[in-house]
Amino acid sequence: xxxxxxxxxxxxxxxxxxxxxxxxxxxxxxxxxxxxxxxxxxxxxxxxxxxxxxxxxxxxxxxxxxxxxxxxxxxxxxxxxxxxxxxxxxxxxxxxxxxxxxxxxxxxxxxx
Length: 112
Hints:
By secondary structure, this protein is mostly beta strands. It is built from no helices and 9 strands.
C-alpha cells in the first residue's frame, strides 16, 4: 500500500500490512452425541436437556409410503440458541427427538 504524507506533499511511503486473525472470534462448534430409542442423534451447539420433543411421521405424497431412514436436520433457534440436530427417520418414517430445549423454534429439513 502506498500512502502520501499529509505534511510533506512530495513524500510517499510504502507500507506492508499483515493480519493475524484472532481465533477468539471464530464460531465454536459444540458437538454432542445422544442415543434415543436406539438411534444416534448428533447436535451442534444444542444440548438435549429440555422438556419438549418432536415426533412426526413423514409420508411420500406420491406413493403413500413412509419416508424411511432419511437423514434430517432440525434447526433450533432461540434467544440464546442457534444450532442443528442431526437425526434420521426410522423404518416407518417417524422422526423423533426428545428433550429439546425449552423456548425454541424448530424447523426440519431433509438432507438429499
